[in-house]
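Format notes (please read before filing issues)

Several people have asked whether sequences and structure tokens are stored in separate files. They are not. Every record keeps both together, in the order shown below: the sequence lines, then the token lines. Line labels are part of the format and must not be stripped during preprocessing.
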Amino acid sequence: MFNARTAPQTDLCPRNFLCRSSLFIHAGILSLLSFAVVSPAGRLRTQLGVSVGDGGHLALLHAMRRHANFAEWLPMTLIVIALLELNGVSKSAIHSLGAALVICRITRAIGLKADTVRSVGRGIGAGGTAIVTLVASVWAIVRYF
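Then the structure lines:
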């Protein structure tokens, strides 16, 4: 458990002050969103009696892809944004990246439909997530040098 009194003092987090990350709100929203993304797959597994794989059910396959795509992109992007924040990038930039990521992940989850690959929401969500990840990653590399 974090203890502000025993935490090492840094410029970003003095010992007598509990650090408040700009990314907290976005990470919290995305964590709650993960329940909305995971729940349909679990519900369908129970209804269809499928414990592993998709059992040949297209609806379960799509629910699994929503969950997998969320899990594939979200952790690394949040980590890179958090590292940017720890290295002094402005709160407004962190909020912009975090808000864009939240919007893109919601749009992507809603846009992944069983009937078409070319859904507008899917494209905006996937492309937007890739752009946020790319911007944060390049920013982190540039910041290093």
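For reference, the curators noted about this record: Residues 58 and 103 are 26 Å apart (CA to CA). Helices lie at 24-48, 58-86, 91-111, 120-144.
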